Amino acid sequence: MSNYQTNKPGDDNNRTSDHRNREEFEETPTWAAVVTVLGYAILSALGWLRDFLRHIGLEEKRTAHDPNPKDFVPLYQSYECFYTRNLYTRIRDVFNQPIASVAGAKVHVMERVSDDYNWTFKFSGKKIPSINLGSYNYLGFAENQGPCSEQAIKSIETYAVTTCSTRHELGHQRYVKELESLMAEYLNVEDCIAFGMGFATNALNIPTLAGKGDLILSDKLNHVSLILGARLSGATIRTFNHNDMKDLEAHLRKAIISGQPRTCRPWKKILIIVEGVYSMEGSLCKLPEIIELKKKYKAYLYVDEAHSIGAIGSRGRGVVDYWKVDPNDIEIHMGTFTKSFGSAGGYIAGKKNIIDYIRVSSHSACYSSSMSAPIVQQIISALSIIMGRDGTNDGQKRIQQLACNVRYFRRQLVDMGFIVYGNNNSPVVPVMLFMPAKIAAVNREMLKRDCAVVTVGFPATLLTESRVRFCISAGHTKEMLDHALKAMDEVGHLVSLRYSKKNPHHRWVELDHADYDKEYTS
Amino acid sequence: MGSSMTRGDIESLATDFYDLLESFKHAPFYHISFEIFLVLAVIWLVFFRKPRAIEKKLTEREKQELIDEWQPEPLVPPVDPNHPALNVRVLDGIVGKTVEIDGKKSLNFATFNFLNFVGNSRISEKAIQAVQKYGVGSCGPRGFYGTIDIHLELEERLAKFFNCEEGIIYSYGFSTIASIIPAYSKRNDILFVDEGVHYAIQKGVEASRSHVKWFKHNDIQDLERLLAEQEVLDKKNPKKARTIRRFLIIEGLYVNYGDICPLPRMVELKYKYKYRIFIDESVSFGTIGQTGRGVTEYYDIDRQKIDLISSSLEYSIGSIGGFAVGSSFVVDHQRLSAQGYCFSASLPPLLAAAAIEALNIMEEQSTPLFETIMSKSKRLHKKLLSIKGYSVMGDEISPLKHLRLANALNTIGRLEEIVQFAQTRDITITVARYLTDEHLLPEPSIRLILNVEMTDEELEFLCTVLQEALVKVTS
């Protein structure tokens, strides 16, 4: 059962039914859903059995013990930890895998061994060089050599690592001002403010924009930071179905016509929060339609471009660039520097009066340390490269390489018969696994073939929709992608992942360079 | 007229009534039940039916009119262009013991650089090496290849430093305690929180949606009163009481007040009233205690009795981020439940490397360093007390002090004037800034922070300038 709208060309209006909007969310085959639920049921039953054995003392309790006396109220309810104890621990080795190198296109994964079924780990000392398909490195700026890291090193020498002060009090460094004006220029907006953490940018700034008496319309699949920010603001939150414009319109109409619940007073303002690229689905928001709706109903729009800035659009300017809309139509542009710029932090950009208000009343600006110099310098260097200010066309090459890699990888996966979610141009490529055991199997088998991938299941996704999520990078060469595709082909055959009924499929066959160039790079 | 009833009338009524009763006896059963049903229906209609809200059956035109008429408020209210946040100072160079503003160098008493690690060459060297090995960013959350070996090393070192089982690091100081509290305390739980805690803790408390009981700042009697009241409620409903978790949230050294919490008595009460203690030692870590291990060392309390110690890497350590240490039982839970840990990119490796080197220096220099900072704090405290016209808040060994004007002269305007005057004499100090929606807005003050490398002459100079400023402002 799929929860999403699948677009077909010719749907809706002409504006968004072009190739940019081609998104696929093939329906879950019923038998797969049934087997998945059965799998969880068996695991749960085994979990209850094991808990019972632990309770009566036949099995050793391996969880840590509360150092406080027994008459304290237990810190965790037993059922809260049921999932952790009995399901998560079984496959714990595939999460939190440490690395010992730069998180670039290739990475050294530290091998861990466990003698007690994942309760404790020991490092074997071996480092597995793998192709990194899990880190958010869309434009390949996660490098320890090159102009960006050299300039970051220089900035440590000039400005040290930190300032130990908040912005409101002592002030900010010159480089922060430089970053903000450069970012505003990059996005083609009036002003921008930068923060030290992307999560905190959402969680601590949405409360300054919305409050009691306001309505927040949030996409069902929004990130946790957006949901936390909306909750902390005190505004009323209503969710609309993912990317469903009819549902959004219905909510808008209902909100304005009926007003606030109980008192029926009109809403003070309505804020629509969407993301540019949704990191678990790989879908893009339908920005032109949302802007039309927001203009029609006088709502405000907040777009979180954490995964889309730098990675989407012909000039790397995000979904605004991708859909060719006017940036002034969006009140708040938000994004992070972690993914495409190889650094850390977040930003909010928009009209000057909005950014000024955030400068004055943001929690981050008043209570958090200013950003660190090398972090900011990395962003400035990366931005200069993308914008071509460094005198080379390295930036444009990276953007094109990423777009090319994405199209190639997605197409090959679809041809192999996997169910691939998301927009054809999104660098986030989720491939469906469905069954819980496959989460561990795919991860381990891919690592054996020197590919580091990310597999996710419940609760990050719906119960029946576990997936392996690839993050493509401009740093990946055709050889690396071919290696990954070959590995995926073998693993897909081993673990039976070819669920797709829509497309005819075949085993993977390497595309030679000439054909590849003809089809993808021209 | 015939207003009173005659005997005949009464008799006929009685007969009628008797006939009625007789008819009931002879009536078929279905008839009687139907009558009873009608009576009950009437009673229900009259007394119990809720008046149904008149449903809006609007026409399309009316709906469109409502939509056209609705005018939202502006997204943000207008802002005063002279607000200090819009006219902040621009700094150049390293913000260490001295800071450069508009080309002029001044002594820095405004940043949380207690141990003068900002600009330390060893730390910068390690940070540079980390950039050469790992690049700048970590490109992912901890769960998805964002865990780098240097993070694991820092967590181990912090746990070892505090002699605790496990440590966990966060990528942002504010988010540390703000993510920790909601990870443990849920809707039905109770938080006993000191009123003077800083904003990040207030946000964490808000995010947890628990019942909050604020007690007066550092007032043990008030805390005991609240605990006793809760105990009475518990006795009334012991079954429910067994499912409510209780936490005490305090700071080691309060950022907003500069005073130390009365920890020993709070630990005693912990075992009496059965709550767990979470201390935020952002300021006290690296400043208090013989070897900089915070209030637990200062009071010589066994750290096993404290459930969780959280702190920031943005103060004494001179890096960015935050951490928490405690028993594995407590800390491990955060790896799956703390939102700021699971859903956020991990700390950039160069900042972790800087923190590890700072810890190395703290361990190497150990007691002499911390004795120096505590004794300098005491000397500064004495000097400030001797200036008539100021009142000094904070413990004498605290390197963070709040300075206010005595009597009713204490306004933000006057304090700003003092700050500006000091700047002309090459001393940088700052007024403590707060947002207006703090739980308990502290009174305006200048927050003075002592850097361990300040010499006695420099401290003397600071006091001289403060004295002159006072004269200028009160004349």
TrEMBL record, chain A:
Residues 131-487 form the Aminotransferase class I/classII large domain. Residues 9-23 have a biased composition (Basic and acidic residues). One of its GO terms (cellular component) is endoplasmic reticulum. It is found in: Endoplasmic reticulum; Membrane. It comes from the Eukaryota. Its cofactor is pyridoxal 5'-phosphate. Residues 1-24 are annotated as: Disordered. PANTHER family: CLASS II AMINOTRANSFERASE/8-AMINO-7-OXONONANOATE SYNTHASE, LD36009P. Belongs to the class-II pyridoxal-phosphate-dependent aminotransferase family. This is serine C-palmitoyltransferase. It comes from Adineta ricciae.
UniProtKB/TrEMBL annotation, chain B:
GO terms for molecular function: pyridoxal phosphate binding; serine C-palmitoyltransferase activity. Its cofactor is pyridoxal 5'-phosphate. Residues 107-465 form the Aminotransferase class I/classII large domain. The chain crosses the membrane at residues 29-48. Its EC number is 2.3.1.50. Pathway: Sphingolipid metabolism; Lipid metabolism; sphingolipid metabolism. The keyword Transferase applies. GO terms for biological process: ceramide biosynthetic process; sphingosine biosynthetic process. This is Serine palmitoyltransferase 1.
